[in-house]
# Entry
Amino acid sequence: MSNAPHRDQILIIEDEEIIRASLRKLLERHDYQDSDAVSIKAATDSFDFNDFALIISDLRLPGQLGTDLIKMVDPVPVLIMTSYASLRSAVDTMRQGAVDYISKPFVHDEMLLSVRRILSASQHRAAAAKTLGEIALLGTSEAIKKVTRVIPKVAASDLPILIYGETGCGKSALAVAIHRGKKSTRQRFININCAGLKETELVSQLDASNASATIFLNNIAELAAPLQPLLLRAMQASQCRFICSSDQDLEQLCQANLFRKDLYYEINVVSIAMPTLRQRNADILTIAEAILEHFDDTSSGLTPQARQAIARYQWPGNLRQLKNSLQQAVILAAPDEPIDTELVGLAEQPSDSGQIPRLASNRVTGHSTAPNYDAPAGLSLEDYFTRFVLENQENMSETDLAKKLGISRKSLWERRNKLGISRKKTDDPQGD
# Structure
């Protein structure tokens, strides 16, 4: 099968023969190529979902709901249709990730309009994602060259790969690059976000995979404890290649009994550290210019002051933060004028101050880029975190501290460990 979907290839999953035949006839009359199946299982047995640009599915199917497809086939868009039309079910369906919702019997013009809109948008997103993924690996710094040299060596390997790195540094881009490596024989790339993953969703996606698939388990540290033995058994029995990513130290989580040791040893066979932007400072301007060209190839570029500010800023959010800042700048920039420091969102410092530029508030939304808690002026977020915990841990539980700081208990533990803040002694029988 081809790795790239045909731009007009559509899969219909519908158990009612009359509806299925009517939809096929409508699509073919407007020059779309289509295939069909009566259930998700039948579709899984017969097709590779990545061969399709769009999947149109009934909500209520034999054995499974059509919404089960949404995460199973990601990033292929899913349009849900149902005769059980109501505002609440429409909202619930869209919240689960469906790109659109149409009630049956469908109106032909409404269906065609939705199909055209979805295909146009998904083609743009696919091109953008591929380009931005390639941009994440640009640069000549030794830190990124060390990573890119590894890609062809591990591309054909069946060994599990663990990618470490801070949030937003490009771990997903590296996983895709390994999947697409020249020596790779893998056809499908299944992206599973472990944060908030339910057992039915994990089982569905693992069942939908085959020996030619790469399964990318993003945010593996967030995988719920009850799902960890299930994943371990699946990995031991599967012929798929597994790539995992984490922005947390899994070994330390194991020591704190927050992650299974046997699963950690199973996934940590080949380990790759994805560098932060701070570790590849020489690449920042190259990446910034490529991002600008991606979003607006007519851009007049950056002013010298903006280039200096971007190169000197620490970018705690890494590539994701840099991309978002530049995308905002492109939107706000006047035609034919270079992008200045203010548009990027970096507060300009006096040229002789020697200070690192600070990130200004987001001018589009009006919200600060800081986390939920407000740090007093003059304190870094780490200083504020340390002070807040030390001043309040005698009177607040770990749960209350985490809630007040707007983070999870696991994140609180991680930051305590990183900053060397020991946890208070407690006689709480619940271990809080």
